[in-house]
Design goal:
The chain is mainly β and 111 residues long. The chain has strands at 2-6, 9-11, 17-24, 33-38, 45-50, 57-59, 67-72, 77-82, 91-97, 100-101, 105-109.
Length: 111
């Protein structure tokens, strides 16, 4: 299983970023997927999840209405559109399948 997230960066509060994750080494189109994040000095936390077909997505309360998770099964790719970003969204973001998670991408929200 290989998972590689990208697209992070520095953004001002209220701004937007789109994270991407490329997956390989498993049947992506039959796997539920998740985004996780680890804020500085804090434990890993669940952000969102999506069904194998992409028709259902779920979010932790703190990001509902601001983040949108999607997938492209033809490209083995996962996305996380993040809007109206807040300083508390600062974290390393990882894509995950079950207990497997790849190298994350840093998102920093600061003015």
């Amino acid at each position: 299983v290989q998972l590689q997230a990208s697209g992070g960066g520095l953004v001002q509060p209220g701004g937007s970023l789109t994270l991407s994750c490329v997956a390989s080494g498993f049947m992506f189109n039959t796997s539920g997927m998740r985004w996780l994040r680890q804020p500085p000095g804090e434990p890993l936390e669940w952000v969102s999840a999506i069904s194998p077909s992409g028709d259902q997505a779920f979010y932790t309360n703190s990001v509902k209405g601001r983040f949108t998770m999607t997938r492209d099964n033809a490209k083995n790719r996962l996305y996380l559109q993040m809007d109206r970003l807040k300083p508390e969204d600062t974290a390393v973001y990882h894509c995950a399948r079950g207990n497997d998670r790849g190298r994350g991408t840093q998102v920093t929200v600061s003015s």
